[in-house]
């Protein structure tokens, strides 16, 4: 689905990505993990050419994005959705209009836009929130709107840049479930950049560990399942008392 060959990216004298090659199979949930500054976001942003490599190739669905004209690149990007740590919703637009923007930009037929928006909101469980504004939503709900927006144009790949890093453990699980569902039901290939090992372990089928802009190791992985953390006060107290010596 995605094949990257010998990518290099420098910022001035600094090499952010050095000689990275990897192959992401169709239908995978592919994790990229590494320390802060390892180059994870830079690598992800090169998968839709938000960041242009200095050299190397980026094939998505058998098309080398680095060779496309801007017009063809815009077309290719319709099949590559993206979500971000801080959601990037438009504050003065309703949930419905935030999702509809993606359809407008993709010149989706006007008459079918509303029903497509509703379908996507239903999929992420937010059909009742269509007329709310982003400020009225929780972090998990905002991320689900962003997922609905990314899904609207039927992408074959979803790039996720630290999708749960602003969320608490409970909403992290909700968002991971939605991502896993998208992967299973629609066969969308998912690439997740995260510094949270628990996130990577829970759903990823393949993982690349990045270190200082280079691949340290790539492994196939058996997803261990999404943990649902307790949210009751009794659970918090129980966890706090665990390991505490009796007075
Ligand atoms: N536009 C830029 N100009 C200059 N340096 C940059 C730019 N973007 C990224 N870098 C540098 O490239 C390196 C890799 O950045 P990147 O954001 O890809 O790392 P990361 O692994 O995603 O880190 P984090 O987990 O902290 O987000 C960092 O040292 C960063 O400072």
Automatic annotation (TrEMBL):
Highest taxon in the source lineage: Bacteria
Keyword Translocase in annotation: yes
Molecular function via GO: ATP binding; ATP hydrolysis activity
Domain ABC transporter: residue ranges: 2-237
InterPro entries: AAA+_ATPase (IPR003593), ABC_transporter-like_ATP-bd (IPR003439), ABC_transporter-like_CS (IPR017871), MetN_ABC_transporter-like (IPR050086), P-loop_NTPase (IPR027417)
Coiled coil (UniProt feature): none
GO annotation (BP), single: amino acid transport
SMART domains cross-referenced by the UniProt entry: AAA
Keywords: Amino-acid transport, ATP-binding, Cell membrane, Membrane, Nucleotide-binding, Translocase, Transport
Protein name in the entry: ABC transporter
